[in-house]
Amino acid sequence: MLLSCWKRVIPLLAAAVLTGTGCKSPEGATPAAAQAPAAPATAPAAPAAQAAQPPAAPAATATPSDPAAVLGGIPGMDFSSLSPAAKRELATVLSDEFCYCGCPHTLGACLKQHTPCKHAKRMARLAARMVAEGNPATEVIVSLSQYYAGFRDARSQFKVDERMCTGNASAPVTVVEFSDFECPYCGKARPVLEAFAKKNAQQVRFCYLPFPLSSHANSIPAAQAALWARDQGKFWQMHDALFEHQENLKPEALPALAKSVGLDGDKLAAVLKSEQYKQELEGFRNQGRAAGLTGTPSVYFNGRGIDLGFIQDELLSHSLEDELEWRANNNAWAAD
Predict the structure, then answer these.
(1) Which residues is 173 bridged to in the sheet?
(2) Which of 15, 67, 312, 317 lies most in the core, judged by the most C-beta atoms within 10 Å?
(3) Where are the stretches annotated Disordered (predicted)?
């Protein structure tokens, strides 16, 4: 089935994207409920029994009459840069949403009464970012609920190749990226993800998994070249060269890229005429399908999918902090 490049803008960070772009894979991801068992895990799966969940949020109420009273007096937090309209929306979020860290209080009450709670502060910063982008409180509350629900959902499990990973092999968080060398959005995400992985190398193991899209004529030859270079001990060098020459990844151009990283271009040319890596590439694609992948790039923190809007340094760091807290507390949020 043909695959196509795509661009989508869905306001909110829910299961799709905050404001993201990507190359779509419409061949149909396996529904989560019907996913076949994946390969051995590189990250712990969520347990069947989860920690007690916060009480359901109350029905939306009118915007607080005095947003300043709701937003003021919160230690370590300053919302003065928000517009008046954004402040009203954020005040509603803090008044109507719970903080998810075990206390029976709203997010706003937790921020003021339980100042050691780091989780509430991260939630508030994320909500502030969303209202600043024009999202109304009702949508922000739904999005926060969906984002945090993602931590309780069953995690995808991946079989990775350590030769295509960077960082600490025993890091508490494994970040997996499914990517296509010819996808322009993968090219844009690449420097952000790599800088994040480098900055957090002790806490993050970053692994690349190829997912060549059939809509990109040269994606399969490019992926074959990357796997062949891996077998010669130069995966990352070829990975970088392929992304740096996205505009010309025709099979006849790839031997020159191999030579530029110190490999035998003639040998690569022979490999490209064979189907040496066909089965392995399909195995990577099957892992992505089983995880519900809908396009590239797709990124997972310990098997938990994140939306494309999170491929920004600040939001990647936010999700890493959440993941570390969740893992440190045996798949639960730290008690308030």
Answers:
(1) 204
(2) 67
(3) 29-64
